[in-house]
Design goal:
Two copies of one chain form a homodimer. Chain A is an alpha+beta fold. Helices cover 24% and strands 42% of the residues of chain A. The N and C termini of chain A lie far apart (41 Å). In chain A, 23% of the residues are buried.
């Protein structure tokens, strides 16, 4: 069953990258709830989630770097590239049957670490 | 097999919260590679990973909020609470047999969103 989940998440990003919105919409539960805890933003419908993607500005492209799937849940990490810049996006997908019913997004940004206690923690040059 | 992975990740956080370092160390591959892409920090050994945890300052506690497991990989989201503040931590765990061989950590922080194109994206008050 986690293979079906994997196929669904791959399709989600393939169709989004291809701007095939009608097929993309068929993966979404009408009551899909979307949430960005970092900004406190949310969307309360599959139609709204689809609209967010289809109106997102720029020639963006999502490339999956990690994907772990269970029967009713997946967590996916993407490189989201737009205008020569790449951001890391982390999405928790929850399913209701064969439809995506909940998506929780995280966008971790680079930061300078505080002083560390342990000498084991090294840092690559920028 | 993903049930074994789940048990291992639950044990990782239970033992860390309990400061049971000797048992915690038994979950780690000697060559465990730890990485924080946001800061470019890394650790090149299980001993170093254990030392980072065992010397982490404060009365911290990790509580799992999401955990998705496959046979050789898991992604876990935690509330990491210390000194009355709670941060979100996202860890990708990779396994080599029954040992944790790679951990990639993300720490997404709150931010103010840019203006949005779609009217569907609403925002909760702070």
């Amino acid at each position: 069953m986690s293979q079906q989940t994997r196929a669904l998440i791959l399709q989600h990003w393939d169709l989004a990258n291809a701007r095939r919105w009608s097929e993309f919409g068929q993966l979404l539960h009408p009551d899909l709830f979307y949430e960005v805890p970092q900004t406190r933003e949310y969307i309360e419908s599959g139609a709204g989630y689809l609209e967010m993607f289809s109106t997102w500005p720029g020639e963006w492209k999502a490339e999956i770097t990690q994907l772990v799937c269970e029967e009713a849940k997946a967590i996916c990490i993407i490189d989201f590239t737009v205008g020569g810049e790449t951001m890391t996006g982390i999405s928790v997908f929850e399913l209701d049957g064969r439809l995506i019913s909940r998506v929780t997004d995280y966008w971790p940004e680079p930061y300078d670490p505080p002083p560390r206690v342990t000498p084991y923690l090294k840092r690559r040059p920028a």
